């Protein structure tokens, strides 16, 4: 049996489908976390989004605490926490608490985008400034200071002790969709998670910038790249395309400023896309891997070979929970995750 090409992980947005509810979506996420562990995925991460009726993962720390209760070995993390939305002290306390309760299992993936529209970002930050992302470097210094007790001399908050937080630093990652975060992650000696699933045109430049800027740190001796990739896998290419169809309609609604609950395949099939909309969807889905196990294995293998990625983080959006769980299982089998292959009733 061939070894896995690279480790695989899971990125979950807790999708809320039409006819469902946020409560049901969150329960489905806990089921997914347990299944991901059983199948041999390395990490289960949740994303922070706000003011999106179709995404229930607005509070990563809370969801991760519940995911920890239904798992025992898989790493749990944020993909990510949008740091400009929060006081660094709060994030240090939340993720320090998770690390204290579940030592060696917690990842803190940090991003600088709002994860929402500008009005909602203002409501989160209570700040009328045009962009709080300008404070991102200072926020990182403050966050690390709470974890490590190593504030710069004269820092205003150097006498504050984050409890828990100090001495309970999780593994910190920087997330990004451009070379800015790649350079920052490299200079800080942190692992880098790139959003290939929605910024594929920037993947190679951002990864190159990260590797060029990398400086070994106490935590990491060599560059480590994880790519987020959107995947839907089914028994056939046609079945997978059918299940992935609602993503196009959900994307258009979000792009037009009218996000909603995740559509059904039937609703997506009935929608009449304009030529302009089809071009937008084509560009957005160009990096997505959709199809049978054979097609998915080919697509993911090619991505690793082209980018040199050390790990892939799979995100899968379908209307039905059963289809989503099955897709993750088929991907795990196709990519030869040992636990999944051993559990498979048929050779893959």
Give a quick precis of the structure:
This protein is an alpha/beta fold and 348 residues long. The chain contains 13 helices and nine strands.
Overview of this protein structure:
The chain is of the alpha/beta class and 348 residues long. It is 44% helix and 14% strand. The chain is built from 13 helices and nine strands. It has helices at 22-39, 60-69, 88-101, 118-125, 136-148, 179-188, 203-213, 237-255, 265-270, 275-284, 293-307, 321-334, 338-343, and strands spanning 8-12, 43-46, 75-82, 106-111, 171-176, 192-194, 225-233, 289-291, 311-315. Strands 1-2-3-4-5-6-7-9 form an eight-stranded parallel beta barrel, surrounded by eight helices. α3 (88-101) links the parallel β3 and β4. The longest helix is centred in the last third of the chain and has 19 residues, at 237-255. It is globular and about 60 Å long. The protein starts with 7 loop residues before the first strand and ends in a 5-residue tail after the last helix. The model has no long low-confidence stretch (mean pLDDT 93).
């Amino acid at each position: 049996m061939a070894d896995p090409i690279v480790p695989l992980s899971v990125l979950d947005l807790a999708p809320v489908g039409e006819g469902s509810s946020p409560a049901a979506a969150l329960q489905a996420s806990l089921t997914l976390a347990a299944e991901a562990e059983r199948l041999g995925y390395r990490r289960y991460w949740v994303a922070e989004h706000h003011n999106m009726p179709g995404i229930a993962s607005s509070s990563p720390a809370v969801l991760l605490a519940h995911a920890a209760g239904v798992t025992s070995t898989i790493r749990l993390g944020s993909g990510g926490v949008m740091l400009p939305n929060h006081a660094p002290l709060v994030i240090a306390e939340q993720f320090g608490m998770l690390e204290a309760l579940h030592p060696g299992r917690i990842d803190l993936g940090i991003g600088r985008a709002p994860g929402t529209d500008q009005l909602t970002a203002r409501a989160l930050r209570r700040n009328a400034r045009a962009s709080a992302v300008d404070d991102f470097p200072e926020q990182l210094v403050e966050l690390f200071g709470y974890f490590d007790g190593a504030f710069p001399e004269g820092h205003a908050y150097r006498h504050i002790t984050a409890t828990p937080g100090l001495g309970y630093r999780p593994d910190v990652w920087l997330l990004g969709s451009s070379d800015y975060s790649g350079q920052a992650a490299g200079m800080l000696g942190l692992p880098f998670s790139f959003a290939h699933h929605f910024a594929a045109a920037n993947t190679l430049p951002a990864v190159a910038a990260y590797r060029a800027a990398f400086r070994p740190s106490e935590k990491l001796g060599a560059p480590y790249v994880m790519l987020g990739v959107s995947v839907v896998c089914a028994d056939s290419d046609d079945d997978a395309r059918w299940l992935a169809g609602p993503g196009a309609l959900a994307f258009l609604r979000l792009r037009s400023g009218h996000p909603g609950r995740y559509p059904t395949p039937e609703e997506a099939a009935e929608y009449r896309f304009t030529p302009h909309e089809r071009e937008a969807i084509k560009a957005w889905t160009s990096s997505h891997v959709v199809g049978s196990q054979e097609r998915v294995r080919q697509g993911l293998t090619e991505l690793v070979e082209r980018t040199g990625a050390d790990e892939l983080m799979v995100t899968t959006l379908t209307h039905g929970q059963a289809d989503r769980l099955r897709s993750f299982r088929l991907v795990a089998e196709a990519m030869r995750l040992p636990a999944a292959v051993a559990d498979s009733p048929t050779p893959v």
